[in-house]
TrEMBL record:
Domain of life: Eukaryota
Name of this protein: 7-methylguanosine phosphate-specific 5'-nucleotidase
Amino acid sequence: MQIYHIPWINTPVRTVLAIWHQLTKTEIPELAKCSVLMRERGRVEETIHAMQRAGAGNLQVISDFDMTLTKFAHNGKRVPTTHNILDNRLLINEDCTKKIRALLNTYYPIEIDPSRSAEEKLPLMVEWWTKVHELLIEQRIRKDMLAQAVKESSAMLRDGYKVFFDHLAEQQIPLL
């Protein structure tokens, strides 16, 4: 008769599960880059692992546009945001432009104020966007004119966007 030695036979289940988790965990090299900062690394890793376990069929990507999918600058020159593209005489009148600039002058200093918390800023940012969007709706911008303004703009998608979009499409992962 052989006796097998099982070192963790008297080890609490939580400890065994933690060890198992470490043994089966796959590293995410992108998270090790010096440009990636996160408050709770373990929570981020667990979220990513949960998404991996759930599979592509349970995933959707929700992204904003300006400076997430688009570049911030190109060849040292600032690339326009969505609202910069809309700030076009073909799309909005001078009165609307003045009102939007006044809102920018009021709210942008709040957005970049390091002494204010995110909780304090958030309702003010929503208020800003809502006011600007209401002004834009009043302009009754036609789709064909909007498409033309985007084509004529210098807005650029980030490098690698096509690979990203194609991969999402291949896996049938919706992008909003």
